[in-house]
Amino acid sequence: MSADAKPDAGGWEPKIVAFCCNWCSYGGADSAGMGRFQQPPSARIIRVMCSGRIDPIHVFNAFLEGADAVLVTGCHIGDCHYVNGNDKTKIKYKFLEHVVHELGLEKERLYLNWISASEGEKFANFIRDVTEEVKKIGPSPLKPEGVA
Amino acid sequence: MKGSVAVVGGGVAGIQAALDLADNGFKTYLIESKPSIGGTMSQLDKTFPTNDCAMCILSPKLVETGRHPNIELLSYSDVKSITGEAGDFRVKVLRKARYVDEAKCTGCGNCTEKCPKKVDDDYNAGMSKRKAIYIPFAQAIPRVATIDAANCIYLTKGKCGNCKKVCGVEAVDYEAKDEEIELNVGSVVIATGFKPFDPSVLTNYRFDHPDVITSLQLERLLSASGPTQGHVTKPSNGEVPKKIGFIQCVGSRNPRISRKYCSSVCCMYATKEAIIAKEHDPELDITIFNIDIRAFGKNFEEFYNRAQREYGIKYTNSRPPEVIVGADNTLSVKYEDFNTGELKSQGLDMVILSIGLDPSDSTRTIAESSGIALDEFGNIATSIEAPVETSVSGIYVCGVAQGPKDIPDTVAQASAAASKAAALLSGERGTLIKEREFPDEKTLSSEPRTGVFVCHCGINIGSVVNVPGVVEYAKTLPNVTYAQELLYACSSDSQEAIKQAISGNNLNRVVVASCTPRTHEPLFQNTCREAGLNPYLFELANIREHCSWVHMKEKDKATEKAKSIVRMAVAKSAFFQPLYKQKVSLINKAMVIGGGVAGMTAALDIANNGYEVTLVEKEKELGGMLKDMTEMHDGKKPSEIISDLARQIHDNNKITVMNEAKLVDVEGHLGNFKGTVLSGGQETHLDFGAAVIATGARNLEPAGLFGYGSNSRVVTQAQLEKMLAENLSANNITMIQCAGARNPEREYCGRTCCVDAVKNAIRIKKANSKANVFVLYRDIRTYGVTEKLYETARELGVLFIQYDKDAPPQVQDSAVVVHDVMLNEDIEIETDLVVLSTPLISGEDNSGINQLFKVPLDKNGFFLEAHPKLRPVEFATDGVFLCGSAQAPKLMEEAISQASAAASRACTILSRDFIETEAMVSIVNEAKCIGCGTCVTVCPYNAPALEEATVTAEEVSYTAKKSRINPAACKGCGSCAAACPSGAITAQHFSRKEIGEAIDAFEQGIKSIAVNEKVVEVTV
Ligand code: FES
User: Scanning every residue of chain A, which has its alpha carbon at the shortest distance from the alpha carbon of B51?
Assistant: First the structure.
């Protein structure tokens, strides 16, 4: 895998970790499948029950393990299955943006998006757009090897 | 008496009724004539007024229904007749041949793919094609294929047979026959819904033109799962339209075609569709042609305002008589603008006909075959004080079968019908239901031994992902002791294979790589449980929706991705621990707060279901606001309705009424509340398992409005009620609608005021035909069947004059001056009594009660339900329910329906032997907890609380605050775990370790895993 980890060298595929909440955005990814909305095979989805569960630590972890981008996703505001988990996600995301910036990562590597369980096409487009963006800037400067 | 119920109709009404009954201990048959349940709601893109995705909120209910051990789903079946009597009915059901064995079909869709015959797809309202063998939609329950016999090439011509050839499980059976069965049930609930009005009857609307479509068709165009993936394009040429016009009341409010009623939902769905269309394309120009905009429900007026303000949607007060097709096939409408009297014309790219709700054919067939009375509109007849009871005792009705209504009112009525059926059969509760039985769980060895099962899903996965390759790869992963491939992991023989592999290889973790856990996790969890494994030792790796289906052209990369998805699942599952739902006992008693008609009904229904209730009323007597009414809109006397309910309550030994009482304290949670009631200076402690809040609302005192308070000839409708009961001397009466409502200060519509005003206008005219009655209005909102009151009033000579909100009527000494928008001139109305129609406002005690139960209020001070569509009588807090005008203003019949609904929902708790808590709850490591209380603030369910604990560390003891999470209140969202600054909280099943391992595994291999417990630094 690491051999072709150069931008555009033989179709380098970025590695994207997508955190999805069970009730909406994970369902959106499912709907993308049901609607056969094709997307680059770059994303790895980690399911949590609610976007409110996403601990900043998980996001940093993903970067430290070599993710080229991390997606934080959940239900639209007001739709959270647990009343207001995504409101908390929004607050945490502000903090995440800062820290990710401090780590020297480009802003194109971190995204927040609200995707409902019916928005399959939106999910697929999102993955495609992020993949494109990340392809432009190349692999993450944080190499997994550098991390204990 | 039989402990079973037949629910006829599998739309959202039938589904809700069936779930309530099954949860209440009754065997329930849900009979649906289409191949799958879900009804019209499953075709909707979004729902007003929140624009929630319809399928997302409905689909969990579909799955729950399909899986419920006490619901027997008879889809693709018609009810022929109902005979017998309350407690013992015979229901004849025709099971139409599906030509596919439901038990065998896995819903893989291979047959559909290979079927050569294309047919109009009714799920997409005829706007796309489906195959002759089909699954109606992706989330269909049951998810099995059906052959449309009329169009199948094999069944009509004896050729083809493709579906049979490709079916991997031999489910296709061309020899299948219709079958008639008979059910013996104690009660029947009719939920046969409606059929959309067919606009081709109104030839003037040119439905034959491809760009003239119905609102339901537009709904499909707007839907991401629809024929155009949510892009609105002109059916004629695929171009993006620039101008769209909605014509309202197509098939409603039209006596000429004997549709006298208002369909209740069209104004709001048109507004919703217009908003969604605008969201897709902000350039789109949208006009909604309407007679009145009936935004009468909770948050509807706000929605309507937002449509105008934020989306620029235009509402034109007119009813265009026809759609004109020009020489070049272009569309336009000519209309008279009611607001200016001008004749105008407008070119349109698309015309949307906002079609009404017609009674469904099955409503009529069943009513005729079974002797159930219909009303003048063809709905099942009921009365306002018994809104779900049909003319046949023991048969109940709910939803649009009873009259046009929106989803929340439908859902409430469904629960109400369930409550009545359950009360009737309460002696038989639990006699016909079954519990699932499982073997003991085996003890877990410390080493993870993981089994991986990779599914081909026919060709759905196998044609893209190299399944054997993934199996071989899985075998190389740490902890994996067994791996195999399966053709269909979800088929019943695969369940056997998995169980055998578990026992043969002593597996203690199971990973199935197939489809989405959102639909299939429970199935495999169940299989694990049957093999003696705790269900939480299971993980699904989604390599279909998230892989093979979305990377169809990149097979190698898809295989790589599938491997890494499996790797992540294996890594994560190694840390899984058995989790258990806890069983806690409960108190099978209820408390109802508020003794108006809603509270009285709720208390009676709960008691009739067999549970004790305490009814807490703040006043001396029961009856609430109904006491101030003197006549209902159907002519009944409110005092008689109240005394009848009061007598039933008095005679019911399960109900304790506490008058002049106030609930002052509540502790506890679902199943186990402790309340303190203050009455006559004395405190009483009461324990209850569920509570219903029915505290009603109150009349607005419109001080200062239109001279109210200073001019004695200005009264409110409530005061007029009293005057009408005595003797009304006034001869010239002018009513002013929307007094104190629909304004910046109070944005909402009062819902009941138009019905009340029209009713009182009729009363005046009937008592004195010489009286002059004027009603000055902005929109007349006599929705649903109350439209007939509006018609009656006009027939009796009541004069309706429309005014604009910016030019309100002026009350003068002996006249009211109003600017008539239709005539566009000021008119002076001689008046000796001005009646203000004011809205109900929220009860003064709401803000105390909401704190006792920790339930929310909305911005108008009414109680905020858990979900505006599907949970109208529940709070997000389990065990607490609401009904009546405490939630928002309501007519009496609606309050009664809601009250029975709240009772039914409460009984789903009271009927249990114990409460099962969520298993994936968060737990606190008290040693690490610093008592900061972050979790307490973050949790929306009040599950964590800080408690004093003694901490002993290095020979010092001290007390400190520690968080404790009540597992009965925790819902397992994990927000607290993410927020805890000291890492003291573990969100079980989604712990930092479990998620962390998955993250670690996403790119590289898994490091060897050692499951060791964290060293605890201090002991508590
Ligand atoms: S459940 Fe989706 S964000 Fe909370």
Answer: A79
